[in-house]
Known about the structure:
Elements: H1 7-29, H2 44-52, E1 98-99, H3 106-113, E2 119-126, H4 134-144, E3 150-157, E4 172-178, H5 185-207, E5 210-214, E6 218-220, E7 232-236, E8 269-277, H6 278-297, H7 305-316, E9 321-323, E10 329-330, E11 344-346, H8 351-354
Helix pairs in contact: 5-6, 6-7
Bound molecules: uridine-diphosphate-N-acetylgalactosamine (UD2) and manganese (II) ion.
Amino acid sequence: MLRYFTRNHILIGGFGCLLVFCGILYVHHGPSISSFCFCPGNDRRRIEHNKMTAGLCQDNGNWMIGELEMETGVKYAQPSTTIGRTDVNSVTNWNAPLVWEGTFDPVVIDAIYKRMDPRVAVVLFAVGKYTRFLKGFLESAEKYFLVDFRVTYYIFTDNKGDVPAIALAEGRNISIITVPSAKRWQEVVLGRMKWATVTIDKRIRNEADYLYMMDIDSVFHNRVGAESFSRLSAVLHRGYRNSKRTGFPYERRPASKAFIPMDEGDYYYTAAIWCGYLEDMYKLVKYCYTQSEEDAKNNIEAVWQEESHLNRYLVYNKPTKVLSAEYLWSDYDTVPAEIKVVRISQVIKNYKEVRPNGGH
Length: 360
Ligand SMILES: CC(=O)N[C@H]1[C@@H](OP(=O)(O)OP(=O)(O)OC[C@H]2O[C@@H](n3ccc(=O)[nH]c3=O)[C@H](O)[C@@H]2O)O[C@H](CO)[C@H](O)[C@@H]1O
Ligand SMILES: [Mn+2]
């Protein structure tokens, strides 16, 4: 019998089976994630993960937090309906989580999110003398930041040679992008929005699902993990966490695109760490870039550069998660009782010495 099956028969038969299989997948999962695809840039872990989920993967830009599944047998403390943090607010008035130590269980979070296995990009600028902060940032990030997740650090610098060689865990990479030097620090902080927009368009979009924008003058001291994931997550600025909204350093000049009136606004967010789905972050990074370009045309620069534009956007486009100041503290400040864990802290730096045009 067998000899009647030519190679062509086998090929046609095999192809037929594949079509039927794809058809079943399509009916099961609907058109949004229906393509039976090879995901470029995926490593072994993703391939194994795909096997678990019937070979499906999501198109670039479509990654999102999926089913909150976990395997059986994970051991963790039982959550309470009445006991939790009472000294802080852990939900916003638009019903988004406000994350503090004690509002999540890392065992549960990891059991859920490691299965989703997003490709994470971190955009970092180290221009001029700021390359000196790379070592402390990267070494501590390898210890505490999204351990066991896939992470690519995109380092934008004017001095490739000063990027230190750091031992990275499996699934983690460094990509260096050359940018011009600057005469004013304001140029760098605003330039981040331009260069990030251009580079997301050119390549990051094809390489990542989730994006963090972060200052480089920071060191990780404790876990920063998947509890920070959401469509768009912003971090409370430690300096204004208890201020009245009239005291927030929002841009108050109506001539600027970042203008926020005195009687509006929720929180003051730092621009030194923010994160979200790749396309949501792209939209916001591009917004900061184009709004600051508009301001420049009108000869105005927002009081806190991109941070002012970021804050304006977030008043009218609420973040889906707010992270407490645990996620960015500062070595300058004593730690108050409500901060049980400092996760990241800005290092002390001599502004005058480190910035090309000195000063604040
Ligand atoms: C805690 C906090 O809210 N930080 C914000 C605050 O700054 P900081 O005073 O912390 O600003 P900064 O000096 O750290 O500058 C922001 C970042 O830009 C990069 N950089 C800056 C200058 C330079 O010469 N080379 C270079 O690489 C570097 O990644 C640095 O971390 O205000 C800045 C804008 O005014 C940004 O909004 C920061 O996110
Ligand atoms: Mn900083």
